[in-house]
Amino acid sequence: MCPFQVYKVGVTHYFCLDKAKHELGYAPQKRSLEGVVTWFKERGHGRKMLDAVTEENSNSFSYTLRILPVIVATAVVLLALSVLFLIPCTYI
User: pLDDT of 28-83, one tens digit each?
Assistant: First the structure.
């Protein structure tokens, strides 16, 4: 990531709605978080993730077997990196 990208991520952006209100007739609507969540749930959003988690929990042994190679590979990489950084630089 370059310094400019880091800067852009850290900057707070503010926007004025006056032009949209004036030229487009935009009128923002106030909504509660509970209402928005209910709207999404009524349309099935989030259900797929919940169903997937429930299915994984009901069949946790097969899920563990499926992700075991990923866990082992991650452990090997982390071990290799830790060994790499612990070896003193004697060639300098």
Answer: 888 888 888 888 888 877 766 555 555 555 567 777 777 888 888 888 887 777 76
* Extended strands (E) in 18-90: none
CA-CA distances (angstroms) from residue 1 to 4, 6, 7, 10? 8, 7, 10, 13
Domain boundaries, the chain: 14-86
In eight-state DSSP terms, residue 45 is T
- Using CA atoms, how far residue 49 sits from 41, 53, 63, 66, in Å, is 12, 6, 15, 18
Per-residue pLDDT tens over the stretch 14-29: 778 899 999 999 998 8
> Which residues are within 8 A (CB) of 17 and not within 5 positions of it... i.e. 6 or more apart?
26, 28
